[in-house]
Design brief:
The protein has 351 residues and is mainly alpha-helical. The protein is built from 15 helices and no strands.
Amino acid sequence: MDKCNHVVGAKIVTTQVQATNSTERGHAGRSMAPAPRGRVILAFASVYLIWGSTYLAIRIAIETLPPFLMAGTRFLVAGFMLYLVVRMRTAEGLTRVHWRSTAIVGALLFLGGNGALVMGEERVPSGLAALLLSIIPLWMVLLGSTEHKGVKLGPRVFAGLVLGLAGIALLVGPSELLGHGQVDPIGAAILLVGSLSWAGGSVYSRRAALPKSTLLAASMEMLAGGALLIAAGLALGEGHSLDMTNVSLRSALGLVYLITFGSLLGFTSYNWLLTHSTPARVSTYGYVNPVVAVFLGWIVAGEPVTLRTVLATAVVVSAVALIITHRARPAKVEEAKALAEEEAPSIVPFD
């Protein structure tokens, strides 16, 4: 879960749901600027590979670092660095309402979403964790359909929902389904709750009173989420279990990677793509990242890839593709304009 790995990875709107590792608002009104093809390809590769690799990096980081303290440190440092850079470039005034709204979004995305991810990866392989979290678009569709003028669950979206649920059932079902290889049910439950929290934060952010600057909002959400994660870690006794002399170089490098590449470089590439490509193309990371995560977990960490995993991956990715590529057809010009304003991905990828 990475929202900016952070907070900007993927907001799935009511009519074109785009999965989510803070908030990307205000891109819909921007026109695409021309850019060299090679640079666009590199930016897509960055988003695909970096955000797909953060799940493995989390697993490595929590080998010897307490999960909540690790995640909290990651977002506090990345959020603080981003906040300083943005404040040097913008004089936008902040109100108490802005801080309150970003704190709520940060709690749902980072404490609820990323917190569940780091907990879940203690029981579930990183690739399968990414696969379970890829159902965020399903939650987004369901939550979005409850809103006023929310998307209607047409045949295409309904098929995506059914496929997604079938893929999850395949992963967590009994071994009799397709032999051994099913996901730990407790770990899977934690991850599914986390994906719901992430989706809820994404939906809420679309209507919340956030700063006009996307980057500023993202940094504030990461600061709030990071502080809450550290508070949760201390409340769970992680402070007593932390022994810096026992922290491995692997874990330390994993944390550094998450801060620099996952949160800062990945987010920068994603933010740049939103002004140089279409929302539909940018949103493809939603079904590429799980595949990358499964592959990296297998090739780097030796995580098992069974027939069950392959089939579940194909089913879930197909479901996400159905939902992400769905377009509602508004009947009125006014509705069409409103839809255009909603089509840019807005929240960060979960990881």
